Give the backbone structure.
Amino acid sequence: MCMGIPMQVKAIDGLVASCEAKGVERQASLLMLGDEVAVGDYVVVHLGHAIERIDAERAAEAWAIYDEMLAAEQGG
């Protein structure tokens, strides 16, 4: 299964964003979104690419679902 992960943009250098989610930092290409994204925005990262800009509420909702899935997988 492939899923996009909501991450917050912490810095931008050209078309590369430094993103963070739950203490994990990753680089993501902004090639698909270009100048639509600013530091502080939330994006969905899939296979190293920011594919969609989302609001903080939608990012939190997605993480709540992911946390439920992880808890269910771990039996808790």
The first strand starts at residue 5 and ends at 13. The chain has a mean pLDDT of 93. The radius of gyration is 13 Å. The chain is about 25% helix and 40% strand.
